[in-house]
């Protein structure tokens, strides 16, 4: 008899919520928000970032393996169709005194080609460094199942070595198996089950200073991260909640019907992120595909340029 995984997930998800969140916290804290299927408590994230003892990460590095150029009207509802926006296909690296964690894995050229109708910029030398950083990483966090995030692992010729240190949620694992995002990233259950797959409620402290939390909306398996560096600086990595910070700040949806997002959940995330942007001056919000942020944060030394290998 097959176990009904969905039912288990639903129950474990609900259990996680009921155990970890006192009902009164909604009223008690302005930083707590529960609307439309998105919930995150900043104070809880801060506490959990110290749940795992050890040195906090020293810095966050970033690289991009490709660009996708889309009409601004597709990225942000209401924007001009004549204006173009560049979406960077990034990979982030958390550098600790004794190791590193990668956030997602980029993608190879063949997978990149499945995204655009025309040939778009690809940075092979950056992807070569991603491959080396994947080898070197202690852990690789898969934020969601999409090919621009998972392709670097799934298509790796070193899959067998990488698989045991790929961490993801059960939701992501099932989507990788049952709903491959692109033809190039089809993968068997047997291979996915070699990942380090975790069922959890809302939050998962994964390393000193790093907490993953569930943020379904962009996809049903999407996760965000809270990151605290040794120098005290804090980050919320909003992953693909918005493709651009403009989505978040203006609270404007993407206009890409093929992505099938839950707009109610995304709107709740945008409101939560805006509350943080406006009230928490120590926190920087990261956005995976925002190319302007990518350039700006490298220039300002908020993010390190390129991965250490
Ligand atoms: Zn993405």
TrEMBL record:
Keywords, alphabetical: Exonuclease, Hydrolase, Metal-binding, Nuclease, Zinc
Gene3D superfamilies reported in the protein's UniProt record: Ribonuclease Z/Hydroxyacylglutathione hydrolase-like
Cofactor(s), names only, from the UniProt record: Zn(2+)
Transmembrane segments: none
The UniProt record lists the keyword Nuclease: yes
Family: Belongs to the metallo-beta-lactamase superfamily.
Protein name: Putative exonuclease of the beta-lactamase fold involved in RNA processing
UniProt source species: Echinicola vietnamensis (strain DSM 17526 / LMG 23754 / KMM 6221)
Upper lineage: Bacteria, Pseudomonadati, Bacteroidota, Cytophagia, Cytophagales
